[in-house]
């Protein structure tokens, strides 16, 4: 991680921790759950070496970012995109548009950034989570419960303090290991009182792409911040649905490349493959230029296959 600079920047009522390296056009990396700027460590170094200024913040409620409110209601997509726009205003006032790369919740934030403020995005590379058009007839949690039942992770994340208590039984390091090494393509369940995948004590062998030092870094930050900030994003699913009513049927009109692993649980959600490959995705994202499905790759794609992802990002953004 040599040469990566760390800064604290006041944005939108919080103080955001930012890691950055390099000079040139700005590439903003937006992380997911349960992650940090650190999830982009390989991409930061690579893009900086190829003529770009790579910037990766710890999002609201995560890592070394401070001042995040405790109320879940202040973790809507409007708040999260507001943080990103304020960050861009602070660190790159001379650049009207920047490149954006998102993963997991970071991909969702990036989609909403493109809906709310397409004037700020030159091109987007999103990983793992495809665009999800708003269904005006059904709230997200209704849909998840109908498909998966109350033990589905997004449903279990709703009650304040509930999943945090489950995580406390596993321990911060155990939670990090279990999430980052999760490779089951099917839905993720948290049966009440049974822990992650029904076991608290199942030993985990780390894959080659994830070291004990990596886990220790994540764990040190989540021990400091807790998981509530990140879980609050999920708690706003239905409120986001309400607030985003004005953007129903609005298309994402920035150039996009989408990359997903063939073993990613998000790729196997009902209807997702059909949406991605049979015209729905292209209709909602008319400037979608490429969809890449990476073989034998799970959810944490930029860490699992860093060399391939680095090249995919670079090959796309250097066109603009």
From TrEMBL:
Pfam families: Abhydrolase_1 (PF00561). GO terms for molecular function: epoxide hydrolase activity. It is an enzyme of class 3 (hydrolase). Its EC number is 3.3.2.10. The keyword Nucleotide-binding does not apply. Gene3D superfamilies: alpha/beta hydrolase (3.40.50.1820). It catalyses: (24S)-24,25-epoxycucurbitadienol + H2O = (24R)-24,25-dihydroxycucurbitadienol; an epoxide + H2O = an ethanediol. InterPro entries: AB_hydrolase_1 (IPR000073), AB_hydrolase_fold (IPR029058), Epox_hydrolase-like (IPR000639). It comes from the Eukaryota. Pathway: Secondary metabolite biosynthesis; terpenoid biosynthesis. Keywords: Hydrolase. Residues 25-138 form the AB hydrolase-1 domain. Belongs to the AB hydrolase superfamily. Epoxide hydrolase family. This is soluble epoxide hydrolase. The lineage of its organism: Eukaryota, Viridiplantae, Streptophyta, Embryophyta, Tracheophyta.
């Amino acid at each position: 991680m040599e040469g990566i600079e760390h800064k604290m920047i006041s944005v939108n009522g919080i103080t955001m921790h930012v890691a950055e390296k390099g000079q040139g056009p700005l590439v903003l990396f937006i992380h997911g759950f349960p992650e940090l700027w650190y999830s982009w460590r390989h991409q930061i170094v690579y893009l900086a070496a190829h003529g770009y200024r790579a910037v990766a913040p710890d999002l609201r409620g995560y890592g070394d970012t401070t001042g995040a409110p405790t109320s879940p209601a202040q973790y809507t997509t409007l708040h999260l995109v507001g943080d990103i726009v304020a960050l861009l205003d602070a660190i790159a006032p001379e650049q009207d548009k920047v490149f954006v790369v998102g993963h997991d919740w970071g991909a969702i934030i990036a989609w909403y950034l493109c809906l709310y403020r397409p004037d700020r995005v030159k091109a987007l590379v999103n990983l793992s989570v495809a665009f999800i058009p708003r269904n005006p007839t059904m709230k997200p949690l209704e849909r998840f419960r109908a498909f998966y039942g109350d033990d589905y992770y997004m449903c279990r994340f709703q009650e304040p303090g509930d999943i945090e208590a489950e995580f406390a039984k596993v321990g911060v390091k155990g939670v990090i290991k279990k999430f980052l090494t999760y490779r089951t393509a099917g839905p993720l369940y948290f049966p009440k009182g049974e822990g992650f995948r029904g076991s608290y004590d199942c030993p985990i062998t780390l894959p080659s792409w994830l070291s004990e030092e990596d886990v220790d870094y994540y764990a040190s930050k989540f021990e400091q911040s807790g998981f509530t900030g990140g879980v609050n994003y999920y708690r706003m699913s239905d409120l986001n649905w309400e607030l985003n009513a004005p953007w129903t049927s609005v298309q994402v009109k920035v150039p996009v490349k989408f990359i997903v692993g063939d073993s990613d649980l998000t790729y196997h959600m009902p209807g997702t493959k059909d949406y991605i490959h049979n015209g729905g995705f292209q209709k909602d994202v008319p400037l979608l230029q490429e969809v890449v499905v990476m073989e034998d790759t799970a959810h944490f794609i930029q860490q699992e296959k860093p060399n391939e992802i680095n090249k995919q990002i670079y090959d796309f953004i250097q066109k603009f």
